[in-house]
Amino acid sequence: MKNVLATILLFVLMSHCTSRGNNPVTIYLIGDSTVANYAVNYGEGQDYYQKKYPKTGWGQVFQEFFTASELNNFKPLIQADSVIVDDRARGGRSTRTFFQEGLWRSVYENLKEGDIVMMQFGHNDASLKNPERYVDIEGYKEFLRLFTTQTFEKKAKPIILTPVARNYPWKDDHLENVHGEYPDAAFEVADELGAYFIDLNKLSMDYFSKKGRDYVSNNYFMNLPPNKYIAYPDGSSDQTHFQPEGARAVAKLVFEAMKVLK
């Protein structure tokens, strides 16, 4: 129990960590539940262990990768002596609802020159069964254009990500695309506007396939047995959200992809 609580505390500290130097750059993360910080952004605070753990968004553990020794690997993308990861992602949000609820405005108003906005949407945009979230392909592209152009207006740097893979469908031991045309649409906007682009859908499909279906199902995604975690007494069968190991694996994919952005 002590080890678990120590891990939780580390998540919170790393997520709030402001290892500020004289010239910090803020990386704003906007997106859905796969990116979100459950320890901070859901109003639960110290109740994270009781209510959500081990559910972890990849943005929740992103800060810990940005050590001082790593920053030289990001030039010219990051011209700073420290990085602050500000995770604004929220569960259930599509590009449209993130804008309509004022979540984007709060990012835009705080953006400064040299900051970075990383946007990963698509899971909820594609949700036809949830009309309050659904955004068709053209609408999805328009909202990505809005986030991107307004980021450029502030002389900040937009990075468009395709949605991270879900743990289905599998075919011949390889994880396949479940997001339809949304990954291609994200690329088209990045290409059109000259934004940075990370194909997280492909990176995660390929990486999870190498690890194997059984491994990622049991260790990366929220497939939990009953009575192991306080928050999930009946267990969980969830092929979208991550356990801490899965969140870290995805965060590392994004982190390494950032190093080679052109």
Feature tags:
single chain, 262 residues, alpha/beta, Rossmann fold, five-stranded parallel sheet, two-stranded antiparallel ribbon, 9 strands, globular, disordered N terminus
Write the layout of secondary structure elements.
Blueprint (H helix, E strand, L loop, with lengths): L1 H15 L7 E8 L16 H4 L30 E6 L7 H6 L2 H6 L7 E5 L16 H17 L3 E5 L8 E2 L2 E2 L6 H12 L2 E3 L1 H12 L1 H7 L1 E4 L11 E7 L1 H16 L3
Parallel strand pairs: 1-2, 1-3, 3-4, 4-7
Antiparallel strand pairs: 5-6, 8-9
Characterize the structure shown.
α5 links the parallel β3 and β4. This protein has a single domain, classed as Rossmann fold (3-Layer(aba) Sandwich), CATH 3.40.50. 36% of the residues lie in helices and 16% in strands. The longest helix has 17 residues. The protein has 262 residues and is an alpha/beta fold. The strands form three sheets. It has a five-stranded parallel β-sheet, sandwiched between helices.
